[in-house]
Amino acid sequence: MGSKLLWASLALTPVVLVAHYALGAGDTLVFVLSAGALVPLAWLVGRATEHVAEHTGPGIGGFVNASFGNAPELIIALIAVGDGLPNVVRGSITGSVVSNLLLVFGLAIFVGGDGELDRRSMLLQLSLVLGAVALLLAPSLPGWHGDPERHVLYVVTLPVASVLFVVYLGITALNLRRHRDAPRRPAATGAWDLRVAILALAVTTIATAFVSELLVHSLDAFGRALGLSQFFVAAVIVALVGNAAEHGGAILVAKRGEMRLASEIAVSSAAQVAVFVTPVIALLSWLVGAGLPLSFRPVEIATMAGAAALVVGVVLDGETRRWEGVTLAGAYALAAVGYGLVGDR
């Protein structure tokens, strides 16, 4: 039923394009339609990469999935940089990390109940998040005094982003090497033809770019109409929309009793944002506008570090309990309220 609904909701993409370009719909309506359209597009990107992996094997398939699975977030961020909305970009990064760690992981634990985790894998990925946050203090601390967008902070950002990206490449290389000699299995029955999967991936990514552009252009008007700050819209609404497919997938997997896989999806998504999405946005930002300093505000640094530390406490014993899921989800609610109170200051 869920899959059929997602296939049907792909119709929102032409609807929002017609509403904006042909009918001249208002920005608030365009934002709502764009947000709705991005959910099935993100799901289809993930679905297409899964089918590519059926033909390429787990190593290359995992690399493709990591690269294209974050396409909606990357596209939204780069368009926002081009539009001169740095707070939106940093807010969406913060919201992605925090929502994956607290909301998605918390709901997965609540739905899946008591279970076991891969403690070693969880702690490794959480250490990546904490390490990334620590490195981000270099351009962030000077930004707490004076203009956080000044060019010198982008100069400081470049080596930080480079280190994070090198860490990502190192991890990817290790994974590819680990899978290189693994026996290849034939594609599963019902898998899409490789050319069909690649075509679907390309078309969906292009559609995502168009819809993301409309989302970013209408974001400010939507926030003003509802009395919400740009930062709150980016950190909560845009972050949830950009990750909606992964969020739903983790919760559904947990409901089937596969807590290990559900926890991997949630925590690895946060780690990928920290060591892949964030540096790529910074390194490419000069191509679409002024270079983006990774000068996060205190509330952003605190909530990312706090979320990772809280999850470390949950996974230390290698087991999950339903009350821990409630605690994590409650912590996310508090973070979201904090984002609303802080606003764009």
Describe this structure in words.
- It is a single chain.
- This protein is an all-alpha fold.
- It has one domain (2-342): Up-down Bundle (A middle domain of Talin 1).
- Helix content is 81%, strand content 1%.
- The protein has 14 helices and 2 strands; from the N terminus they run H-H-H-H-H-H-E-H-H-H-H-H-H-H-E-H.
- Strands 1-2 form a two-stranded antiparallel ribbon.
Report a brief summary of the structure:
About 80% of the residues lie in helices and about 0% in strands. It contains 14 helices and two strands, in the order ααααααβαααααααβα.
Q: How would you characterize the largest beta sheet?
A: 2 strands, antiparallel
Strand content: under 5%
The end-to-end span amounts to 43 Å
Unreliably modeled segments: none
Present the secondary structure layout.
Layout: H1 2-9, H2 12-21, H3 27-56, H4 58-69, H5 71-82, H6 86-112, E1 115-116, H7 119-143, H8 151-180, H9 194-226, H10 230-242, H11 244-255, H12 259-288, H13 298-315, E2 319-320, H14 322-342
Antiparallel strand pairs: 1-2
